[in-house]
TrEMBL record:
Stretches that traverse the bilayer: none
Gene3D superfamilies: 1.10.8.60, Homeodomain-like, P-loop containing nucleotide triphosphate hydrolases
Name of the protein this chain belongs to: Fis family transcriptional regulator
Organism: Microvirgula aerodenitrificans
Coiled coil feature spans: none
Key words of the record: ATP-binding, DNA-binding, Nucleotide-binding, Transcription, Transcription regulation
Amino acid sequence: MISREPAVNFDRVRSDSDTRPAQTDTLITLPDSPVRATSIRATAQVFEDPKSVALLSRLRQIAPSEANVLLTGETGTGKELIARHVHALSRRWHGPFIAVNCGAFAESLVESELFGHEKGAFTGAFSARPGWFEAAAGGTLFLDEIGDLPLKLQVKLLRVLQEREVVRLGSRKPVPIDVRIIAATHVRLEEAVAAGKFREDLFYRLGVVVLGLPALRDRPGDILPLAQHFLAVYRQRLGQGNVPLHPDAERKLLRHPWPGNIRELENAIHHALLVSESHQIRAEDLQLSSLSLPDAATGPADSAPQPAEDTLRQVLLTLFERPPADLFDRIEDTVLRTAYEHCRRNQVHTARLLGISRNAIRSRLIRIGVIDARR
Ligand SMILES: Nc1ncnc2c1ncn2[C@@H]1O[C@H](COP(=O)(O)OP(=O)(O)OP(=O)(O)O)[C@@H](O)[C@H]1O
């Protein structure tokens, strides 16, 4: 089933209108704002596998309520997309949707970004700024990678959720808040709670409704429809004509374990369209890693992974089979992408694994389009 329901709201980028936005494939970027907000994109969504159909109907049930939602699932399973969907189907659809990656900022910065600050609250606070909680008023605040929130801030977040008010850094005046929280994590929070790394009371407050997103390998009925969907999206973007999937390519897609889930499938299809030299996508056009990610349930959440020697070997073999002109750039980019997925999209772990600074990792990931500069 291709859902044509609006996946986003456009209120922050359009004038006062009380009608729901029409579905569109336009990429829209939020205007500069004192708070971080991601660009928003309305896309068709694929929910074909029975597991996804069940997820969609659960989501429609819970969306209209005001309950906080906790989304769990491996990286790339569509947590942010589902969060946008819940928002679009909620009574808050006309308010802002603000996505915040709690793991992307230093502890000192997250606090002022989330809760805001007054002028002079700390060195460099030249003017007062509202935080994400205030900016999301009337809408939804999506707290991604909530498991990365430092304990000190977990205490503060819990208080904000209980009191329904926020106090900016450097101020004593409480400001009432009106947001629905959707949090997401790719680690098992129950285990972080047991290990004393995540507060149990906050876990229950955030997870009034818990939605587990199945890994792509556990919903095989979605693989080919998603591949067709991404083929259509990227064909249109690249201005290409119809490029069908060869049956061997379909078999290869169905056999792959998809450790990077839907994002990995999207990248594989995009890449295949770029390198395909025939009128169809052949199996050899699909560059799939042999990477198998450590299970989030068994792998410790905060330990750096070991170098993925098998993966690197596979990457090099693939490149040397068909060496492109810009070989060294391609090797660097591919190693970085693979290491980043291996580290479950954790920039600090990727930096540690590759022995480069986190800033260097971040700017390269932005340059090659893996992450959004605004996040
Ligand atoms: N059901 C779907 N139909 C079509 N595209 C999808 C679907 N689910 C996810 N995608 C696409 O897959 C990509 C990854 O999805 P998303 O960013 O929501 O995953 P995520 O679980 O939030 O990832 P992470 O844990 O790394 O933050 C996005 O480009 C998204 O648009």
